[in-house]
Amino acid sequence: MTRGARLAAALLGAILLSALLAPWLAPADPRAQGALESLIWQPPSAAHPLGTDSAARDVLSRLLHGGRATLGIALLAVTVSMSLGSCIGAVAAVARGPLDALLMRVTDAFIAFPRLLLLLLVVAGVGHPGNAAFAVLLGATGWMTTARLVRQETRRLLATDHVRGARAVGVPWPRLVARHVLPALAPTLAAAATFAFATAVPLEAGLSYLGLGVLPPAPSWGNILADADARPLAHWWLVFFPAVAIAVTVVSANVLAETVARRAGAIDADRGEDEA
Amino acid sequence: MRRLLRHAPVLFALLLAAACGRDADVGGGTVIITTSADADALVPPLRATVGGKMVTELLFDPLVEIGPELDPIGDEGFVGRLAKSWAWSPDSLVITFTLDERARWHDGAPVVARDVAAGLAAIKAPANASTLFADVLEIDSVHVVDERTAALHFRERHNEQMYSASLVTPLPSHLVDTIPDGALSSSAWAQAPVGSGPYRFVAREPKVRLELAAVADHYRGRPGPDRIAMVVSESPATAIAKLWTEEADVWDVLPPPDVAEAAKHPHIRLVRSQGFDYAFVAFNYRDPRDTARAHPLLAERRLRHALTMGVDREGIVRALFDSLGRPGLGPFVRAQYSADTTLAQLPFDTAAASALLDSLGWTGRTRDGIRTRGGRPLALRAVVPAPSANRVRASVLVQEQLRRVGVDVTLEKLEGGAFNAARDAGRWDLIFGGWGTTPSLRGTRTTWGTRTRPGWGRLNAGHFENATFTASLDSALSARDLPTARGHFRRAYEAAIDDAPAIWLYEPAPVNAVHRRFTLPAWRSEAWWRTLPQWTLDPAQALPRDRAAAGAAAAP
Amino acid sequence: MRAALVSRLLQAAVVVVLVVVAAFALIRLAPGDPFYSSLEEANVAPEQVARIKAHWGYDRPIPEQFARFARNLAQGDLGYSHSRIQSVQEALAATIPNTLVLVVTALGVAFAAGIALGAWQGWRAESRAARSTDTLGTVAVSVPEFVLAVLLMIGPALAWRWFPVSGMRTEFGPAGLAGLADLLWHLALPATALALPVLFIVARLQRNAMLGVRDAEFVRAARARGAGEGRAARRALRNALVPVLAYAGVHLSALVGGVVIVEKVFDWPGMGRLMVAAVHARDYQLVVGGVLAGAVCTVVGTMLADLLLLWADPRQRGRA
Amino acid sequence: MSAPVPRRRAAPALRVRELDVRTEGTMRALLTDVNFDVAPGEAVGVVGHSGAGKSTLAGAIAGLLPRGVALGKRAQVHLGDVALHEATPDAWCDLRGRRIAMVFQEPAMALDPAMRIGDLVAQTARWHGLPAREARDRAHDMLGRVGFRQPARAARAFPHELSGGQRQRALIASAMLLAPELLIADEPTTALDPTVQAQVLDLIDRLRAESGTALLLISHDLEVVAERCGRALVVAGGRLVDDAPSAQVLAGARARRTPIGQRAVGAAAPAPAPLLDVRGLTVTYPGPRLGLRRAPDVRAVVGADLAIGRGEVVALVGESGCGKSSLAHAVLRLVAPAAGTVRFDGLDVLGQRGGAMRALRRRMQLVPQDAGASLTPHLRAGDLVAEALEVHGLAQGAEAWRRAEALLDEVGLPARAAQALPRQLSSGERQRVALARALASDPDLLVADEPLAAVDEAARTQVLALLERRRLERGLAVLLISHDLPAVRRLASRVLVMYLGRVVEASAGAGALSDPRMPYTQALVAAIPTGDPAAPRRRPALPEARVDADASATGCAFHPRCPHPLKDDRCRSERPSLQSVATDQPGHLAACWMVPPPPTS
To answer: Which chains touch B (3 or more CB pairs under 8 A)?
Structure first.
């Protein structure tokens, strides 16, 4: 692990820890509102290190508790999208023939369908479904890249000499997949998962900006940012601190993902076989 | 120095202008109205939003228009537009209007009596689903007496007959009659209307911009500004930002933080005006699960009183509007003639509220302080419209304040369409509602009137029912003069406040921003754009777009 | 080659049909009403709304509505948009070009600069400058698009007034050549907001591909034939383009995902803004028309990327 | 445009003095104190075990050392009058391609995959100052001289559309285009078949003679060096241990080799019922997809018959692409044959299902062609061999591990190999792990596909001894695919020669190779280097095999390339069947009209 990777792992760990320990770390209740007139839109001060928002709530507490919501959503979304994507990808790779074509066309359809629109429609439809259901929804609309990656990688592995060698020795299919194919997939999946996580966190923020993410008064990095929307310049601290939190999380996730991928040799140029 | 540098070209041009006659080539200038909501329709029968009202009232002249005093009773408070004079029938069920012979449509055709009939027909045709259908219910028909005379027949007498008549805007019958029912909204005319107002339609890019040009030979005289453009932005923030960069000239109802920002920009002048909107938290008198049954909790008047007393309305107003808003008084705004600021309000008194709740048996407490009775927590579900930023922020404040007196309010923020659907279905305990009012008080019947009478209470989603209120409102709306009407309204409002169908949250007192280079008459609160034709440009501060307008205006 | 095109067209058609059917059903199932859905338009009586719904056939069962839509589509009629008071064709014709201008410029700049930066970073991997720009790249990729957009709007536009705050043209601005300059002036910030993340993703991909190819046998053979550093690097880059173009083809729609947010922040009158507004207004026919156009653009874009890939990697030409 | 006039020069073409090469970081010496000369036009071989430093020497001379490796300070390398060790990058650009050229082992990797070969060759000329039009003409002319029948069409081809031999010819064309003074050939033909290897080496010699270019030929194959080069430099452990005439070096090496000797006695046991009986086996692969239609199927094996008795070794010989591997894979049912029957110990292999098939798999094992790649990269060698035991229920857990270690020892691998991952082993060691894994389940039949290709001398003898021991002690039957004649002569009880999917010659014992009758077999045997410098001249010129040769053509498949003087239209129209070649050689059959049938007396 390079120096950068260790730093990234440390940062990510700190952030995840702070989100978990939010109730004990946060100086105030994230929903508690200060005296209305005097305390709204306060810039960072001794009393409120990261300032207050439109409802005189302490931004530092909301950032910590918000981390729990945002990271929770991102992790659950990634789990859903990875498992869904891997299953579809693996089935498509092994199935070949019409089933493979069908699955790939459905994947293409999901890619062609503007994801934001799909989320808008569903949330407009059922009303805000609560954070967990929202995360599953995010996952259910973000699995396509993983599916294609897993399909291409599984297909490549099934055609390799060492799988044919193992079959020649007489290794039965289940053991063959478990010991010879899956371990080779693991690093690719790990890299894809970390990249997916690195895109899920800002996505929650973006959706909150469009009024879709975690519903106020519950805190999330996204809706703190969205709260400043009307006056980004005047209420800079509502934009700056969540943005830093998001950026640091995503940078660490990206660096980790790349380290995992490089060690697995997943990103090497000459493996350019097409997936046709 | 930097500002001077930026305006060097303007100064140079002015020197040149001064040399050969001062304001010869600057003309009336171009007014750019910045907004975050595009006009929903360009023709009178279909418009509903403020943007729609503005555009249709610039493009079309009504028969008559309410005067500056905003008195809708009788007809003294009205000024003639397309109609230069009118006469009442003895039983005052028919008003006969005589049209101004100079009035022309933008395509040159004269305005005739048949156009008035076309105007009413377009509103009455059910398939058109006109937004004015309910407001002109009591106008029966239009009788074309002769080329220039049209008589409006009313089904019943009431004190705002002339105001209803002002809603029937004549339409160019030679263009509209051929459009089948229901196809009005998608007709070519509706997309690029020929009107009769001081401005005519030039060009439109939906959700981006709309351009209108002054009608030089308009029968009421040439309007001041040569061109008006309405520029649409995605969010209020971006729209208002254009004021600071002089990309726009006027925005009405400036949010408090921007009022402070405006002070830093010398080219912006602030104008105060009266508000015509009010917001409230309405209680659902019926059980959300089965609207036939009374609401298990909120049907109890004293509980409604306790909740009302638990909300610090003064604090919320100061948080949302600083000094640019006042607490709501009742189902009306201070700018309406029926307003009465002396009405006794329920005070903000958490001690009294808690005592009342205890007396009602809500003595138990859950771990996080929510009151319980017989094991059930005092929990209410509120729906909040996402598009309304003020009501969203107010909901969070109300939620916290009620939590302090032991009431658990869960907020559900719904997007525009979903909010309307939920409101009509009644699947909520509290609703953060709000109404835009007009000088006419007849709207109170629809928003707060009993649902038992035909045409009443369609928007009374909380099923508020109070005999005194209904009776007093009925007599107020048929009173022949202002003092009698005000007396009846006072009794109606007292009954409403006592029954507490809603917590009257706030009534914004808007501040509007206008570019300093325009001088304008008194600001019309209910429809600021009606004075636009009287705006005059100070040639000294003319901007490049003003001069471009002068060139264009001189050309045709 | 021609046969490959035919089979891809078939696949694309299937995808577009799937997407349109899904959009058609989803928008109609969402609650709320296509008419009078914004807050202030609430005072129209339900029976009136029912009449106008019947006029437009929205009260029929969804399959029947789809049949009618398909018949109209066959004659090239995409329907009417209530919220924009114009036909869907006009609405799309007005907004698609604006989005294309934004996306094509942004992606063009992002890929050109990304490939150049990545190739240089890969070829000179050991140099300090290459490593530092690489870490800069990791950070730039991590800033969420809309925070980047807001920052670009606050600084250069609002605070320092170098660029216009929003919109696509100055109101009553100059026409002709000066008009073009005005357009580019307005395009600068949104295109940058969209391009930056893509640029660094492409650079990172190109760098990795270059590292893989830099020591390949054919590069050594090129040197053995007398190629200097420059020529050897060019040959290596020619082959290192393949994984980058392959990535572009697969992730095209994800790359332009940020358009909606950038258009919202900069008031760019494009497809993204149109679709968000259409959904909020429950503008059935506009949503379906927009999704159809969006799907076609995505599919065509992906096919263009695939064709570019076939050009780049001759080995793929043999197999369809 | 006539070939350039050969230039005669007095000074040595290449002078190397005190050549040291070190890794920059750890300063590990790759080459120490190498001194030698190469006269103009002379051909010098460089031989030694893999890893001895041969390629490093080539890289050092051409200034193409890998990253992190550099010449020692005292090293002196002179190409004619130019001091290469002091050459600036610009100087190198002028030198490489014009005065010094290189040809590489893997032609597929050395050609730019995205460039047509015509453009590639022309580019070399353009880089050295020729105008585009003239460069293109010279490129086409050069492609013609290296053996492409239609140079214009060949010029438009991409590397992946050519055969191994054609790619090497293209590389040679670009190297010899400007008649360099020195050509360094780093294992130019190791990856090619014997017949193609012979043609390529002939081509190099012809071009060298025309332009007087000196050759530095690097190869691990002593016979090739002995045939083609007058002198041989022997490199071991990064030092020059011998610089002598190549014949002398070959003789010395042969003396050190353990005697291959004749087959063990008792080979001609009476033929019991065959363990493996293959009849009329046909294997087809789908042709490349041309749009929606699919090109006609490629018939890799056409109606092959094969029988192997217990303890018998049958060798399959032929050029790559003749169907050897397809036949082997079909026998083991790794590929579904289109027609024909395969019976193993009386069982119909193609009919077996599930468990029965797995039991059969235990008794038939494969050592694949690229054995190293058949080992799963993330599993240790011990695990792989133990798995073979566990899968067939012969042992579990620790017992399986212990027997795995014993097997690895039996194939001559050190104890540490069991813990090692495949990438930590050399190609020879990986080959033997694959062999151990195949022998783990004590199979009755072992199909070995080129088991000795990537293995050096020492390991080769060990593998042969192991196969021999298993054959004698356990009655192991082996289907050996190889063109390593000495090994085939030693092990094979019967030899089959295949050409384009058909068996064209068969013999009990190694008769087909010692006394080949079918013209193709003769050409094949002649092409195998023996170390005799005169051999190249005696070889019949055999035209290049076309990439898309059609196996289903009527008549004798070899007819288009057959050099036999008396071939007539019967060869073209009628397919010859296998007939006995001579009465005194029972079992020696050949499928050729020119083979005299046994006298009818």
So the answer is: A, C
Tens-digit pLDDT profile for residues A69-120: 888 888 999 999 999 998 898 888 888 788 888 888 888 888 888 777 788 7
Which tokens in the block code for residue D455? 């293995």
Residue length of chain D: 601
* Total number of domains constituting chain C: 1
Domain that holds residue C298: 88-319
What is the C-alpha radius of gyration for chain C, rounded to an integer number of angstroms? 24
Angle at D85 between CA D82 and CA D87, to 5 degrees: 60
Contact A36 B315 (CB under 8 A): yes
Chain D window 94-153: which residues touch A at a Cβ cutoff of 8 Å? none
Question: Which subunits sit against A, judged by 3+ Cβ pairs under 8 A?
Answer: B, C, D
Out of A33, A127, A231, name the one closest to residue B237 (CB).
Answer: A231
The per-residue DSSP string of chain A comes to --HHHHHHHHHHHHHHHHHHTHHHH-SS-TT----HHHHTTPPS-SSSTT-B-TTS-BHHHHHHHHHHHHHHHHHHHHHHHHHHHHHHHHHHHHH-HHHHHHHHHHHHHHHHS-HHHHHHHHHHHH----HHHHHHHHHHTS-HHHHHHHHHHHHHHHTSHHHHHHHHHT--HHHIIIIIIHHHHHHHHHHHHHHHHHHHHHHHHHHHHTT-SSPTTS--HHHHHHHTTT-TTTTHHHHHHHHHHHHHHHHHHHHHHHHHHHHTT-S-TT------
**pLDDT for the residue numbered A34:** 65
pLDDT at C135 over 90: no
Is a pLDDT exceeding 90 seen at residue B228? Answer: yes
Does residue C42 fall inside a structural domain? no
A158: distance to nearest CA of chain D, Å? Answer: 12
- Is residue C8 assigned to a domain? no
CB contact under 8 A, D64 and C223: yes
pLDDT recorded at residue D262: 47
At residue D325, φ and ψ (nearest 5 deg) are -65, -35
- Domain-located, residue C180: yes
Q: Which of B10-24, C121-135, C258-272, D334-348 has the lowest mean pLDDT?
A: B10-24
**CA–CA separation, A117 vs A115, rounded Å?**
5
Closest residue of chain D to A171, computed from CA coordinates: D391
**Confidence band, pLDDT 50/70/90 cuts, at residue C320:** very low
Check: CB of residue D115 under 8 Å from CB of residue D98. no
The pLDDT score that the predictor gives to residue B556 is: 47
Q: Do D110 and C217 touch (CB under 8 A)?
A: yes
Per-residue model confidence as pLDDT tens digits over B486-545: 999 999 999 999 999 999 999 998 899 999 999 988 888 888 999 999 999 998 888 888
For residue A60, pLDDT over 90 is answered with no
**Looking at the whole model, is its pTM more than 0.90?**
no
Nearest Cα residue to C111 out of C208, C250, C206: C206
Q: Residue C137: which CATH number?
A: 1.10.3720.10
The ipTM of this complex is 0.76
CA-wise closest residue to D524 among D196, D48, D305: D196
The strand pairing partners of B251, in sequence order, are B513
C141 touches chain A (CB under 8 A): yes
Does residue C132 belong to any structural domain of this protein? yes
- The distance of A52 to chain B (nearest Cα, Å) reads 13
Residues D508-527, mean pLDDT to the nearest whole number: 79
Confidence grade of residue B213 (pLDDT, cut at 50, 70, 90): very high
Picking from C15, C30, C275, the nearest residue to A112 by CB comes out as: C15
Phi, psi of B261, rounded to the nearest 5 degrees: -60, -40
CB contact under 8 A, B421 and C32: yes
The per-residue pLDDT for B5 is 52
Q: C59: buried, middle or exposed (CB in 10 Å: 19+, 13-18, 0-12)? A: exposed
